[in-house]
Amino acid sequence: MNLLTLSNTGFIVAIFGYIFSFVAFVIAITGQRFSKGDVITHTKRWSRRGIALTFFGLAAHLTYFISRWIYNHYPNSNLFEFMAMLAMLITVAFIVLYMIFKSPYLGAFAMPISFFMMAYASVFPWETKPLIPALQSVWLYVHVTTAALGEAFFAIGFAAGLMFLLRTINYHSKEKKDIKEQRGMELVMISFVIFLGFIIAVFGFRATGYEAKFIASPVASLSESAATEEIIYNLPPIFSPTGGKLVAMDSFLGIDKPVMESPSFFKGVNAARKLNTVVWSLFVGFVLYIVLRLLVRKPLGLTLQPLVRGLNPEDLDEISYRSIAIGYPIFTLGALIFAMIWAEIAWSRFWGWDPKEVWALISWLFYSFYLHVRLSRGWQGSYSSWLAVIGFIVIMFTLIGVNLVIAGLHSYAGV
Amino acid sequence: MIDNTKCECGHQNPVDTILCESCGKPLDPNDTLEDMTLPLEMRYDGVARRSQKANPNVLDRIWNFFSSVKVAIYLILITLIVSSLGTIYPQQSMFIGKMDFDTYYKENYGWTGSVYHFLGLSNTYDSWWFRGLLVMIGASLIICSLDRILPLYRALSKRAIRKHPTFLLRQRLRLDTQTIQGENISNFVPLLEKRNYRVYQEEGVLLAEKNRFSRWGPYINHIGLIIFLIACLLRSMFAYSLDFYAVQEGETKPIADTGYYMKNEDFNVTLHPDGKTVKAYVTKSILYKCVDNCDSPGKLPELKEVARHDIRINDPLKYRDLSLFNVDYDVTPSIIGANVQLTNLVTNAGIGKFKIDLFKPQEQYKVKDYVLDVMAYYPEVDLKDGKFFTKSTQPKAPAFVFLIKGPDMPAEGQVYLYFIRPIDKATYNQDLINERTGSKVKLEIGNMQDVSISEYTTYFNVTKDRTMPYIWVGAAISMIGLIMGFYWHHRRIWIQIEQGRLLLGAHTNKNWYGFRKEIAAVLNQSGVIQPLDDQQLINEVKQS
Ligand code: HEM
């Protein structure tokens, strides 16, 4: 078996390891119904299985990581590799928090973040590419890895914050504040389903081998070989590239022409394709959401609520805060200080106000805001859990949204 | 809406402190002092803190404004929002050179772009208002530190061991229970010391404390941030920087306003095996300092080599406070030197060769008995109104006017026009002009080996500033503060045993969960009381 196959196998095994550990944790917390014996031993036994499976998944994930590193270079050069690493570090952060709090509930909420992150990663091209000179710096790897570790702790803080909210939101109240919280939670759920929608749409059409081909309009293209730039869609084009010419298109449900041209302010060869992907994700996400709502016949937040019944909200608040408090110095070091060191060496300026940099700063300011707000009375618990949730959304925007929406020095190629 | 947990005495208490750590006053404003008799030694009777002064004057008001955490929170929030607005469209600073930004934003982004530009958001990070926000955060950091460090020091160094029982029972973690055996409070000492507590004892009472230093973490972090911000401010005012300073292979070029010159000796690119992606590029460079004739036109500056380095991406040349970074390169093939052959036109016999450095030609060349004075040199020759002039200092189309003296030549010498590139030779009719003056000699280049070609131009960013070390020092101090504050937690436990009754109060600034488990473990191991669950320590009547 060559290194690359080993690596890819490790990746797949890790996903399943995480899924099984998730299942074990869920059995641990809901198992009262299945278990014949005593609840505490049941929870203990399945928690132990859960964490063992987590370690197993992590070992596979490390196999992926290390063999890919040996095979080529430090696996951190494209979005696939970065996301895969982030998922690995989220598992590490979960293990750290699990060691402190021994909560199987946390496993049930944290493990899905890991494996969905991996599913998300695997959407992007897997192949390794040679590195351009600016990326060949040890500091770059140190910077990205440390920043990702900080972000991983924020992810766990997010999971625990979400648990706090699920635990405390009053679904039977019609008070303004409670209604607001119910809606907020449903919005989080919808975002999550849309994220799933993206993965499903991409994999679904990939399985059918769907393809549509355009030639970019010379104006839209930024590269020099403008005339011949091809744009390939793997999702049926709802939006065709502005001024692009259709070359070939597989028909989808009898539709063999793009529905409309994307608005002209979508510039750059990939902008229209990204727009198309976003629209598809929204579409699939909403359909999925409606199906789920029809199945359970109540808000998704309320559906999940029984999972966390019986937990002490203060402990959840504490877990969330602890995780963020552990992550904050690491994030500061990785996303700001190491980034500055690298930028100083590579670009001669430790800070250049590149969008990605600015968003790292915004994330950091956001968590600084969170920490200061917690110094005030009445802001722990519900408010700070909302901040933990929003903070993670800010992080995800920094990692993905900025590349999708704003292009800068750090751009990776994307779907 | 944001409620302060700063006590009247000025001490910043962690949230959920029920009694001020410094003065012991109940923090809930509805809680009156009458409810409890406070032990005298807890009352903080120090100098009134500046931010707590009654009848504040203008200066006090400014001081109060900046020392408030609430204001800090808003400042951070505003900075965050403004920063994000700056990322909507590209910033002006992303473009090199002069541009008409009015039209740029309008044409590319429509009316929203126009508004964006009009509001100054296209230059967010260099704007006075953004700088102003950072300065305000800096001021707030300085003032809040000055305002709090002393009270914190007092609060922390005051270690009254015997507290009023109410003080213990109103802590967030507390216990009031009967002992089952071992009235002796010393039973706890080894257990606590094993967990790295420092234990202070008095008759029947005990205070165990650990990691007090961690309380300094936030302040050290803030001091680091202050240093960092000041260094950034100084840098933005005084640092020298020169972007896209282009030096051709073979060229020695002054670095404007610095007194330094740099030579690009050689440039090389390597590609990845795919033959397309650039793997690395390196510029062999020499840095010179000008020691004489630096500003006198007409005279060649005298240069002294001070540093030499192979500059790569991620590996700049550094000399003192000057740094040179490779940022880009271009393929710009051009002639930079020539080995010119002098030929006698009459006998058609070669006389000899001489070498011209096209970046730095000599004033005079000698070949055997011939002397060639350089009367004029046009690195990039062009013709305007019947006169030659040069378009740049780059030897893109080098041309010379020589005055040649020698055997068989007129004593006052003969003017000879010489173009290096064959194409210019033809364009300007070199041979025809020289024939007219009746030249007896001829200059030419034999073959390709006689010309040196420069293939590349390297672009450098040059920076010269002294503030970088302070920026790193600030960042490092900040980091140390963060680590102190976040990975260690200040924990204090007060225990009193009196006539079979055990009272316990405990306080920490972070990680209550771990603390609770720790206390429960100590209590259970001591065997002094009935085993308990850590949940029993939680103070139910916690007020919020
Ligand atoms: C970008 C700027 C700032 C950053 C990154 C920052 C960071 C921090 C951090 C990490 C903590 C520790 C929080 C915790 O222990 O949970 C902290 C605490 C604190 N900060 Fe800031 N801070 C900033 C600005 C300010 C400003 C402007 C003020 C001025 C009022 C301020 C006042 C405080 C106070 C009073 C504390 C609590 C100290 C204690 O626990 O004794 N901070 N800050």
Can you characterise this structure?
The complex is a heterodimer of chains A (415) and B (544). Chain A has 415 residues and is mainly alpha-helical. Chain A is 67% helix and 4% strand. Chain A has eleven helices and five strands; from the N terminus they run H-H-H-H-H-H-E-E-E-E-E-H-H-H-H-H. Chain A has helices at residues 3-30, 39-71, 79-101, 104-121, 138-168, 176-208, 271-296, 300-308, 313-347, 355-373, 382-405; strands at residues 212-215, 230-233, 239-240, 245-249, 260-261. A three-stranded antiparallel sheet of chain A has the order 2-1-4, with no helix packed on it. A two-stranded parallel ribbon of chain A has the order 3-5. In chain A, helix 9 (313-347) runs parallel beside helix 11 (382-405). With 544 residues, chain B is of the alpha+beta class. Chain B contains eleven helices and 21 strands. In chain B, the strands form five sheets. In chain B, strands 4, 9, 10, 11, 18 and 19 form a six-stranded antiparallel sheet that branches. Chain B has a five-stranded antiparallel sheet with strand order 1-21-20-3-2. A four-stranded antiparallel sheet of chain B has the order 5-6-7-8, with no helix packed on it. In chain B, a hairpin with a 2-residue loop joins strand 2 (198-202) and strand 3. In chain B, helix 1 crosses helix 4 (128-157), helix 2 packs antiparallel against helix 4 (128-157) and helix 4 runs antiparallel to helix 7. The model of chain B is unreliable at 32-49 (pLDDT under 50). Chains A and B meet through helix 9 and helix 10 of A and helix 2, helix 3, strand 7, strand 10 and strand 19 of B. Protoporphyrin IX containing FE (HEM) sits between chains B (12, 67, 69, 72, 76, 137, 140-141, 144, 218, 221-222, 225, 482, 485) and A (368, 371-372, 375).
